[in-house]
Amino acid sequence: MSGQGNDSLKILLEAVPAGFLVDSHWLEHHGIGRRSSYAYVQRGWLERLGRGVFRRPAPGSSAMNTLDWKTCLLSLQHIMHYPVHIGGATALGLQGYAHYLSLGDKSTVWLYGAKIPNWLEKLPLNADLHTSSVSLFSDPELGVVDARSNPEETASTLPWDWKLVMSSPERAIFEALNELPDQESFHNLDMAFESLTTLRPRTLSALLKSCKKIKVKRLFFVFADRHDHAWRKRLDPEDFDLGSGDRALVKGGRIHPRYRIMVPEEFARKERGHGA
Question: pTM for this structure?
Answer without folding.
Answer: 0.89
